[in-house]
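Incident review: delayed structure delivery

Summary: a single-chain prediction request sat in the queue longer than the usual turnaround. Root cause was a stuck worker, restarted by the on-call engineer. No data loss occurred. The affected request and its eventual output are reproduced below so the record is complete for anyone auditing the incident later.

Affected input:
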Amino acid sequence: MEPAFPPPYTPPAALLSQLRGHGYAVLAPEAVAGLCGVGLDALQALAPSWGDLPPDRYLRDGGRYRQRRHACYVLADGAVAPVPRRAHWQSLEYNALHGGMHRWFEPIEAMVASQPAWAQTMVALARLFSQLHDTRRWHVEAHQFRIDTADGIGRPTPEGAHRDGVDFVAVFLVARENIKGGETRVFEAAGAAGLRFTLARPWSLLLLDDARVIHESTPIQPEDPDAPGHRDTLVLTYRAEGFQGDT
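Output delivered after worker restart:
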């Protein structure tokens, strides 16, 4: 079904100017494939792994609607170096609900991380972000998320509108199944301007300059209350000055 507020897709030729001028950009799946140098079939080959994510046991709102896996990498000169398993940490400044604690999520499975599309996507985004930020070394955190409607409602961003405490954020929509809601909202961090839209096509991508914009996704509910529903995303965060908690 066509969303009520369709994404404002950025033409690939205007990607850098859009990010420089507005602090965000939205890419259609075909543009994502072109940017990353991978076929959509290679990206879609990653999608089945979202069906095997363990529960997020750190939700402070008492919810049971989120499953996730997590991994960390250092990217430099086009090379991807996995980092030994470490906790995900954010300060309370950036996450008032879950900040200030070390969250040990289960690692992203080797069968996922070993697929060429995984590394190629991370490297392509690193090259893009290095044109906006003078660094060639990025500390990347990868998060696989599934938000489900088993309890009637799921919250993609239970902390509300927020920044992540990094330099850049990439949010890929992987799947939407039997849900309504999940609208993306992006606002200026230092102004009043904002926009709303719904990512609906698999492997469409939202790119964010984390210093300049805040973002959130609205709760989801099942379209058919007698059937399960979920929203799957891949979130990659890029930070030049080490992982959060290290500096």
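Verification: The first strand starts at residue 24 and ends at 27.
Action items: add queue-age alerting; document worker restart procedure.
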